[in-house]
Specification:
By secondary structure, the protein is mostly helical. Helix content is about 75%, strand content about 0%.
Length: about 300
């Protein structure tokens, strides 16, 4: 786990310094993100989905994890209303607290702590708990900000054009073919997939805004729900119903404890909501995760 945290920190730091020293401009950053979203991540998702060991118990784990996130958001909503937090900030708090950085950051955390087999499970977990809910919620949040209209047709068209979702569906479809694909055919795909994690972490580093940590009050409230309450609910549920943590439940605990989703920042800014809060929470949350995730694993 310590080696995984070290690797994550180094790649994020390199991206952050590249931004500070202006070694990466908007053009280069756009090329990197295009490569990540259209090639590296789809390769990682297809490979992981095809090879992941998935059962009904795993789907239950995903449901419990999502309900843990949702329960934390409900409490956050009541606290926000009690504190009379203004509407745009409260919407930002709830949206960012519901979805975690389960792929870009969660994948290397799980890979370092539990190994490649459970890292493959992260791919499917991410789509069920984060990717698909994000596809539905993003247009809805945009409509709350008055910058777009909510449309189910638009959501399904968006999913149909998403390389990440399409690679997920293809990975599932290939699991049902009546023969197994030789592992040698996956060699170039695996090589491409291996670039996804360092490129994603580098992209996170490029977007870090350390100065935002100074504005800490609302981000602390958001992260308390996302990185403390949500994993606490899952932790209590597992202890009560199962007694101990299996490796799959540990995977879910790590993912539930992830900081807010980086892509959520773009949605919040686009909707004209509290974008500064969203960005500060992501920045602060990444730094907090280096300490909080090992603590959760220790108690598990």
């Amino acid at each position: 786990m310590l080696l995984a945290i070290y690797n994550i920190f180094v790649f994020i730091f390199i991206g952050y310094m590249a931004n500070i020293l202006r070694l990466v401009g908007n053009k280069q950053s756009g090329i990197l993100l295009g490569f990540l979203v259209n090639f590296a991540l789809p390769a990682q998702i297809f490979n992981g989905t095809y090879h992941a060991n998935v059962s009904w118990d795993f789907l239950l784990i995903c449901c419990v994890a999502f309900l843990s996130n949702f329960s934390a958001v409900v409490i956050l909503l009541f606290v926000g209303r009690a504190l009379k937090i203004e509407r745009n900030t409260l919407i930002t708090l709830c949206f960012m607290a519901l979805l975690g950085n389960t792929l870009f950051l969660g994948f290397p955390f799980v890979q370092g702590a539990l190994g490649n087999a459970y890292a493959n499970q992260v791919i499917i977990y991410d789509q069920i708990v984060t990717g698909i809910p994000f596809a539905f919620l993003a247009p809805f949040i945009a409509s709350l900000g008055g910058n777009a209209s909510f449309s189910l047709k638009g959501i399904f068209l968006r999913l149909a054009k998403s390389p990440l979702f399409l690679s997920f569906i293809c990975g599932i479809a290939f699991r049902f073919i009546p023969f197994s694909i030789p592992d040698e055919l996956f060699t170039p795909l695996k090589s491409l997939a291996q670039t996804a994690t360092p490129v994603a972490l580098f992209a996170i580093g490029v977007r870090l805004d350390i100065k935002g940590i100074l504005d800490w009050k609302c981000p602390i409230l958001l992260l308390s729900a996302k990185m403390f309450l949500a994993p606490l609910f899952l932790f209590i549920a597992v202890r009560f119903f199962y007694g101990e943590f299996s490796e799959s439940w540990k995977m879910a605990l790590i993912e539930t404890a992830m900081p807010p989703l980086l892509s959520g920042v773009a949605v919040i800014y686009g909707a004209g909501l509290n974008g500064k809060l969203a960005l500060n929470a992501v920045t602060f949350g990444i730094l907090v995760s280096f300490l909080s995730v090992p603590i959760w694993l220790y108690f598990a």
